Amino acid sequence: MYIDRVFKDTFYIEINGIKLRVYDSSREKEYANKTTLVFLHGSPGQISNWKYLINLFKKEYRVIAYDQRGYGLSDKPLFVSMNDYINDLKKLLNKLGLNEGDIVLIGHSFGGMVAQEYAARYNIKGLVLIGSLTKLKPDLIDRIIWYLPPFLWRKILFTENFLTRKVYRNLFFSKSTPDHVFYEFLNDNKGYLESSPPHMFRYLKYFREYDATETLRKITCPTLIIVGKDDNVTPLSESKKIYELIRNSRLEIIGDAGHLILYEKPNILYKLIGSFINSLT
Fold first, then answer.
1. pTM value > 0.85
2. Cys-Cys with 34: which of 65, 102, 140, 178 at CB 3.0–4.6 Å?
3. Ordered domains of the chain (ranges, CATH)
């Protein structure tokens, strides 16, 4: 059984028949500042992807992070939808006694998709999108996972081997990123990826028709858009489109960073997001 050795101080909340694993820094300390940061990981991510930003921000702000349904150590239903993720987030905030006007949503990749959909529907304090996107663009590997039997791809693509080390390194990280950063990410996620059921890797199939064009036009809260210049998964062109569609937004491009900028440039992210939060009234 997989055990997350990065974040151990977590608990479970049941929402809509699904147990979600949650981290809440207010269990460790009290905060005078009501502003609360809620982190939404990507696919197939988990709470530990945010380890650097959580540890930096929890000194000043209440921080919430959770394994979204189907990921990490949360329950893994066979089918998922965007409304599932939106409803999970809405009910989780209610159960934790949070007001939406105090919330800054911070989403990475697929988590950015959920965050921007939520911000279009509800009045939150602020929104941070890191490597988000307007539309999914499936590649050959996606189609192999979605439509071929797991025995053909499960072990090859989601266990540590020569191929996955090469593919993950080239796909998710900048060429400028030191190898030790890549291997840290690999060590944090190896057990999780190798033990997860095949259907988890197929969740994005249910979002193949996703188009955020109209959603993004509805967002009115202050928004910070961040992307790594070398991001091959959600490229700079996607963040530029998002910037054009959200009226009250600004775009920050970080050099020498790829899609897993959370590992590559956490201190730069901390400064950019911290400055953005300070600018909110």
1. yes
2. 102
3. 11-279 (3.40.50.1820)
